[in-house]
Amino acid sequence: MRGADYLIKVLKEHGVDTIFGYPGGAIMPVYDALVESGIKHILCRHEQAAVFAADGYSRSSSKLGVCLATSGPGATNLITGIANAYMDSIPLLAITGQVPSNLIGTDAFQEVDIFGLSMPVVKHSFLVTSIDELPNAIYQAIHIANEGRPGPVLIDIAKDVQQETIQGITVEVPKAQIDISDKETIAKVVELISAAQKPLFYAGGGIELAQACDSFAQLVDHLQVPTVTTLKGIGAIPSDSSFNLGMLGMHGTKAANNAVQACDLLIAVGARFDDRATGNLEHFAPNAKVIHFDCDPAEINKLKEVELQITGELNHALQSIKDASAINNGKHYQAWLNHCQQNKRKLSFKYNHPGETIYAPALLNRLSDITKDKATIITCDVGQHQMWVAQHMAFNHPAEHLSSGGLGAMGYGLPSAIGAQFANPSARVINVSGDGSIMMNIQELATLIRYQLPVKILLLDNQRLGMVRQWQHLFFENRFSEIDLSDNPDFSMVANAFGIHAKSISKADEVENALQEFIHNDESYLLHVSIDPDENVWPLVPPGKSNSEYIEENCS
Amino acid sequence: MTTSTNINIIAKNTMGSLERILRLLRHRGFNVTFFQANRCELEDGLNITVQVNTERESSNIFCQLNKLTDVVEVNMNYQQKLRSCLGDG
Ligand SMILES: Cc1ncc(C[n+]2csc(CCOP(=O)(O)OP(=O)(O)O)c2C)c(N)n1
Predict the structure, then answer these.
(1) What is the model's pLDDT at position B78?
(2) Average pLDDT for residues A374-396, to the nearest whole number?
(3) Ligand 1 atom showing the smallest separation from residue A435 Cα
């Protein structure tokens, strides 16, 4: 058996059945091994799309995402996607071919030191230059990508190693280690919550990564503590839960940001105090003691001093806290809960927008309502449309909302929708994109057609790089610089050219019919929606300001 | 205020392990003023002594170093708050 065959065999043994990639010289033995391997290889049309697709596959299924590329340009094209998985802690295996081991370091054709280049954005990496190292590298890579705080792992395999015959395999099978929080720590958490007058959960993406959404939602219901979520935490409890105040931070809801500023106990669960969530950190949750649940000890006390830390396995910790505390803790924070819930009602978003033009928040809110009939996954690109999705659509689970959080990478939406559709063949997968972002991986329309994927694209076209325009408007005195996209192509014609149904709308009274047709069509479909170029995302906490200093429409 | 910190690291001598340690220190805002790496008893291991200057809080780097797959043990002359990497409680 060649090294390449062995790689495929071990991947299959670990349950990998789908790989996203793009071939080339230095990875040819692996592509040869794929033939008749039983693994489904999905040919994307750019390596960046392949890695984003693997990421979307992973986020929407909690399985390992795997992508494959050749050396040199194939490998460098993966970097943005690897960084994206790193920032959002997504378990991902990136496999690259490298020039033959005797040519490494000679500036050979398509030789790039991807091991060195990717170092800052991988959880770990391997450069395999001898067949003896291959088995451990593969086993370790899969283990490291999944264990603890997940992340991307790169294996760069010299071409001769892929071709060489493997003999006498000995592997150290890595063992999973699970830390369990001790009883005293759990008791201290219960005590702090019981003593609090205004407790608040701050829920992040780590809850889903730990597959602890059910335990979390049960604990919230049991304690009846109001909850705010990060962008990645959206869905950790259902959006329509009466305890869910919405997303916090720069474009968070007023109810969520007000609650954070007023709480006296902030219970961070799988969240990392990112600047987009906290605003000015010195003024973040100024009156609160902090309890921090995170499996990564390096996140504890990184940005915010904590009173108590819980690094043990999250399901166990949350369930233990539930078991150890009385239902709603004797209602001594009922007044606080009422206050938060009233705020949520009073300060909720309004969708009655005058005029004939299409108001994107209202359209997204309507889309959210009419897609409740079946499992639906929304993937986003980056910009205003991404924030509108977070604000105006409802989600029951984080795996229904795929968004490039930490990296904020335009171009994520369409490839991640492809990955999500492969992982969830019967789900309705919709990419909400902007006219800037869609062009970053537009070539993937070809992938939709090749695999007959019924992925839907809702393109919110403001003929601008809208989020950048908004910042130039607010913080650079309307000195607009390189944000005009009014010479966009005709997006419907672009879709049609790939063989994809499309429709363009521009008036509010066209929305209902267009959305119905869009979601009920069985094939891929692009709905091109022209919206007002001057629309902004509100509320907004200006960078560097406290979350209590949000500005709204009439203030601009 | 700039402070000087001594860090002792036992690491596996695997491909890239030194590079990862130096990269991490640089990226997290630590200026290396002294660096020594010797083979140590640990099979194929390295005993690394680093002195760093920084204006940053030093405790987090302890956890960050500990997180590197190749790093076996970290000791710092800075004791405060190191607990945070050592489990609950
Ligand atoms: C790859 C990449 N390049 C640049 C940016 C900076 N950026 C953030 S939002 C944005 C505008 C996005 O425009 P569009 O996709 O049309 O979305 P809109 O904001 O108009 O909804 C830009 C350029 C980014 N996030 N990612």
Answers:
(1) 56
(2) 98
(3) 16
Contact of A150 with chain B, judged by CB distance below 8 Å, is answered with no
Please give the Cα distance from A276 to A303 (Å, whole number). Answer: 13
CA–CA dist A342, A533 (Å, integer): 34
Residue A159 among the catalytic residues: yes
Give the A window 118-137 contacts with B, CB below 8 Å. Answer: 119-120, 123-127
Find out whether A428 and A434 touch, Cβ atoms under 8 Å: no
Q: What angle do CA A122, A124, A127 make, to 5 degrees?
A: 105
Burial A150-169 (b: 16+ CB within 10 A, else e): bbbbbbbbbbbbbbbebeee
Mean pLDDT (whole number) for A510-515: 98
Nearest to B88 among A144, A302, A309 (CB): A309
CATH domain B2-82 topology:
Alpha-Beta Plaits (3.30.70)
d(Cα A290, Cα A309) in Å, to the nearest integer? 9
DSSP annotation string for A94-146: EEEEE--GGGTTTT-TT---HHHHTGGG-SEEEEE-SGGGHHHHHHHHHHHHH
Hunting for tokens 């760069």 — which residue is that? A156
Q: How confident is the model at residue A556 (pLDDT cuts 50, 70, 90)?
A: very low
Compute the distance from residue A200 Cα to the ligand 1 centre, in Å. 32
Token pair, residue A93, equals: 């295996």
Residue A110 appears among annotated catalytic residues:
yes
What is the percentage of chain A residues whose pLDDT exceeds 90? Answer: 96
Query: CA of A503: how far to CAs of A485, A517, A526, in Å?
Result: 20, 10, 7
Ligand 1 pocket, residue A329 CB under 6 Å: no
Closest CA to A328 of A237, A243, A222: A222
Which residues does chain B have with pLDDT short of 50? 79-84, 89
The verdict on whether A467 is a catalytic residue reads: yes
Predicted local confidence at residue B82, as pLDDT: 46
Chain B nearest-CA distance from A330, in A, is 26
What the block records as the tokens of A15 is: 């349950």
Interface with chain B: mutation pick from A308, A309, A310, A316, highest number of B CBs within 10 Å: A309
Q: Active-site residue A47, yes or no?
A: yes
Entry pTM: 0.97
Residue A531 Cβ contacting ligand 1 at under 6 Å: no
DSSP state of A297: G
Where are chain B's structural domains? Answer: 2-82
Q: Name which of B20, B69, B81 is nearest A119 (Cβ-Cβ).
A: B20
Instruction: Indicate the residue of A144, A181, A301 with minimum beta-carbon distance to B60.
Output: A301
- C-alpha distance from A544 to closest chain B C-alpha (Å): 20
ipTM of predicted complex = 0.93
